[in-house]
Amino acid sequence: MSGKPISAPEGARPVRIRLGPHGLLGDRALAPVRAGPHQLVLVRDGGRIVAAERACPHEGADLALGRCAAGRLHCPRHLASFDLRSGAVSPGWSFRALRLFPVETAADGLWITVAADGPEP
């Protein structure tokens, strides 16, 4: 896993990627997943499931080792946390927001849509 931000060129075609079966998270709040070549973390926030980039935008900490509480994903290395609706970092930090990707629940499992060359919200 790399702390390098995931980006895509302007105009990249969206690609739909199956993450896995409905029960992929099991009883966990967080689970690491791969979407094509990209490392993401699935997060259960109440009844909603969100996918986020797995590396913290601050120093690349593995967010799959963090925790989810009150609609926020908490970095395991720092006191920073991210809003699971907007990706905004908690007050006092001056780095970019966490990239989030809505998870679609379909008859055949969990899916996200990403740009052809990488996830973009």
Strand content: 35-45%
Which residues sit in consecutive blocks of at least 5 with pLDDT less than 50? 1-8
What's the overall average pLDDT, rounded?
Answer: 87
Q: Name the helicity range.
A: under 10%
Could you give a short account of the major beta sheet? Answer: 4 strands, antiparallel
Lateral arrangement of strands in the main beta sheet:
2-3-4-8
Distance between the termini: 20 Å
Computed CA radius of gyration, to the nearest angstrom: 14 Å
Query: What structural category arises from helix and sheet content?
Result: mainly beta
How many distinct helices?
Answer: 0
Task: Return the string of H and E elements.
Answer: EEEEEEEEEE
How would you portray this structure in words?
The structure is a single chain. With 121 residues, the protein is mainly β. It has strands spanning 14-20, 30-35, 38-45, 48-53, 67-69, 72-74, 81-83, 100-102, 104-106, 109-115. The strands form three sheets. The protein has a four-stranded antiparallel β-sheet with strand order 2-3-4-8, with no helix packed on it. Strands 1-10-9 form a three-stranded antiparallel β-sheet, with no helix packed on it. A hairpin with a 2-residue loop joins β5 (67-69) and β6. The protein is globular, with a radius of gyration of 14 Å. 30% of the residues are buried.
Task: Write the SSE topology.
Blueprint: E1 14-20, E2 30-35, E3 38-45, E4 48-53, E5 67-69, E6 72-74, E7 81-83, E8 100-102, E9 104-106, E10 109-115
Antiparallel strand pairs: 1-10, 2-3, 3-4, 4-8, 5-6, 6-7, 9-10
